[in-house]
Amino acid sequence: VEASYDRINEVDGEVKAFLTLNEEEAKKQAKELDEKLSDDASILYGMPIGIKDNIVTKGLRTTAASQILDNLNDPLYDATVVQKLNAENAINIGKLNMDEFAMGSSNENSSYENTRNPWNTDYVPGGSSGGSAAAVAAGEVLFSLGSDTGGSIRQPAAFCGVVGMKPTYGLVSRFGLIAFASSLDQIGPITRTVEDNAYLLQAIVGHDNMDSTSANVEIPNYSDALKQDVKGLRIAVPKEYLQEGVDPEVKEAVLSALKQYEELGATWEEVSLPHSKYAVAAYYLLAASEASANLARFDGVRYGKRTEKKVDMVDMFKESRAEGFGDEVKRRIMLGTFALSSGYYDAYYKKAQKVRTLIKNDFEKIFADFDVVVGPTTPTPAYKIGEKIDDPLTMYTDDVLTTPVNLAGLPGMSIPCGFSSAGLPIGLQIIARPFDEATIYRTAYAYE
Ligand code: GLN
After folding, report:
1. DSSP class of 178
2. d(CA 357, ligand 1 centre) in Å
């Protein structure tokens, strides 16, 4: 824990991964744990962990990087994942920067600061869990939690050269995760190694009565999967994931990873996910629709900072939201409200739901014959801060390789698979059947 804070003092002035530190409390806990340390301590005992700022932490400021929650200094409860980490005696080092309400791909939508990519601080760390990925990459914490609605764990993990797992929808409780798009959101672990990732996921999974979409499934021991090899593993490589739009260096890194899998005894074949080209459109429609409903609660009364202007009630709602939300959040609320409005609902929302089913069916067909789907996590490595911020549509289309996984509810992971000529990390994405995180760990560990 001390090493964590030393490292934060050394580099976070530049990396800017943290929004809030828990230093006094964390050091006190570490001291107590030192005194109680016994041989049967859990693997996460005393381990420094950073938490994305959209995961509620009792008594510790939680803002989702939004001005509308700027005054939420003393939340009343812990998210289920935080309760679980506390039960393992992991230590919460602090809260990590993100795009406001997890809407974004570069951390430039944070209302507080730009987190920077530790590999080259002119570049974005990815998003929305950019702080979570950067903190691990910079050695500020060993483990972090992020959330992934359309790629927000995997994409920053790819940009920062770390390991990020988006679990199957329903595997990890969403209780205490500030909702963006509830049918897509999942919390997951970001770590340096695949092994650490398996330990952290093990600690946070499980059925939870506080989340109505929480799955009641048997949980395997993920670290057992690490001991197996990949002989006979059948890998599907969607041709849509390597076609134009994917940077040649990214493609090359993925193909060389596939070669390594062949040498390890796995086989791979090209397949097609024909509806993946509609994933970005369906995702942005559905995510914005759900966001417009979820963010209605931030009205300055039930939740959120109230305007100080002396106005009547309706203007108080309007002013509080106008002052509290950033541009990207407003854009999504407007888009979602429009898509859900009467007269447009069938044309947009319902249509997008149908496309979602087609995307899910595409994967199901592939998984009848293959164990995993492998491809790049992102079409390009990280880009420069400021390079894409004025072009939201390009940023949206960059999510083409990650959003299908959320729409289908599948588990997906990004692991490092080399570097671009500019020295920036490239991510390999591994996708498996629902609740088959074990096969992802097995596949990832063999490569690593
Ligand atoms: N980039 C995507 C978006 O902006 C993903 C966000 C996420 O997964 N939270 O919506």
Report:
1. P
2. 20
CA nearest neighbour of 235 among 369, 360, 371: 371
Give per-residue pLDDT as tens, 40-52: 899 999 999 999 9
Distance (Å, rounded) from C-alpha 222 to C-alpha 418?
A: 25
pLDDT tens digits, 291-331: 999 999 999 999 999 999 999 999 999 999 999 999 999 99
Distance CA 10, CA 431 (A): 36
The Cα angle at residue 407 between residues 401 and 411, in degrees rounded to 5 = 75
Task: Choose one of 98, 99, 290, 403 to mutate for the ligand 1 pocket test, by most ligand atoms within 8 angstroms of C-beta.
Answer: 99
Cα(393)–Cα(401) distance, integer angstroms: 15
Closest CA to 110 of 65, 68, 146: 65
Q: How far is CA 331 from the centre of its chain?
A: 21
Query: Within 6 Å (CB) of ligand 1, which residues are found?
Result: 102-105, 128, 148-152, 180, 287, 399
d(CA 90, CA 29): 9
ipTM score of complex = 0.98
- 49 contacts 93 by C-beta, under 8 angstroms: yes
Global confidence as pTM: 0.98
Q: Average pLDDT of the chain?
A: 97
Contact 227, 417 (CB under 8 A): no
